[in-house]
Amino acid sequence: MQNLLRPLLVAAALATGLSGCADTTDRALQQGSPYAPAGPARGDAVDGLTVGARLEAAGEYQLALRAYYRAATEQGMTAEVLTALGSVNLNLGRLGQAEDLLRRAVETDPESPSAWNNLGVVLMEAGKIAEAKEVFRRAFALDDGASATIRENLRLALAKHENSAYGAGTNKEFALVYETPAVSGPPEPL
């Protein structure tokens, strides 16, 4: 007799548990519910580059790196992805990796002012001032002088190259330039 009751008790317990799940799903659909909605996602996923740029602007560099890797799996290693990866590696203090990635970015798209600018920032951080000055000049020429950030980076690099004591008493930092994500505007420069 006990062997016959056991499957019935299990079925009754499952039915009771599942009815509770339906209640949770109904509550999740209500406005302001603390429960996550069940079912399939209702919109398109946000592009990994956009998510990464927002995270990087918020100072969440490790999370930004993961979002950029997600973008790389979705889009491939485009110049934009390489530039983003190089920039976040610079923010993480990984100068060697940042330089390698940004050199690949300018090889992939030699017409990208942001990739050239960000390579210049890495070169300045690495103490390669003469090369950085030429890289900033290239970024400025490709941008037609439209970006105030690139213009300021070039000015600082020229001043630092002409007067090596320039950086001793100032805390001027060079700024990265970001590609404009298709979904929204660029993050604020760091």
What is this structure, in a nutshell?
The chain is mostly helical and 190 residues long. The chain has helices spanning 2-28, 48-57, 61-75, 79-91, 95-108, 113-125, 129-143, 148-162. α3 (61-75) packs antiparallel against α4, α4 (79-91) runs parallel beside α6 (113-125) and α7 (129-143) packs antiparallel against α8 (148-162).
What percent of residues are in strands?
under 5%
Q: Show unreliable segments.
A: 166-171, 181-190
CATH superfamily of the domain at 48-168: Tetratricopeptide repeat domain
Query: How big is the Rg?
Result: 26 Å
Description:
The protein has helices at 2-28, 48-57, 61-75, 79-91, 95-108, 113-125, 129-143, 148-162. It is elongated. Helices cover 64% and strands 0% of the residues. It contains eight helices and no strands. It has a domain at 48-168: Serine Threonine Protein Phosphatase 5, Tetratricopeptide repeat (Alpha Horseshoe). With 190 residues, the protein is an all-alpha fold. Helix 5 runs antiparallel to helix 6 and helix 7 packs antiparallel against helix 8 (148-162). The termini are far apart.
